[in-house]
Here is the input.
Amino acid sequence: MHRAPWPDASELRDAAADGNPLAYAMGAEVLSAARRAKTEAKRSLKWAVDAIDVADTAPRTEAFQSVLDDVREAANATSVSVTVGTEASVNVTLAADPDAV
Here is the structure.
């Protein structure tokens, strides 16, 4: 019989209370772009990414800064650069295939 208390979700809610929904949205968009690039290239989701270049408006790039390290790690990216602009874009450069040489 299970006698341990059920986890209390209030701890998670409290931790996320000061979170920025825009940061989550930006992180999800950029990570999705990296995963899409890997899928289209028929590569594993673990495949290395040489660079991710993100361009967007100032509020969106500022929000993205708070999740940049997490996205870099999740995408297995060497570098992530962020530029403020008027047009949103995410460009992903996958690592070269060492077997293709």
Summary: The two ends are 59 Å apart (CA to CA). The chain has a mean pLDDT of 91. The longest strand covers residues 49-56. Helices lie at 10-16, 21-40, 58-65, 68-75.
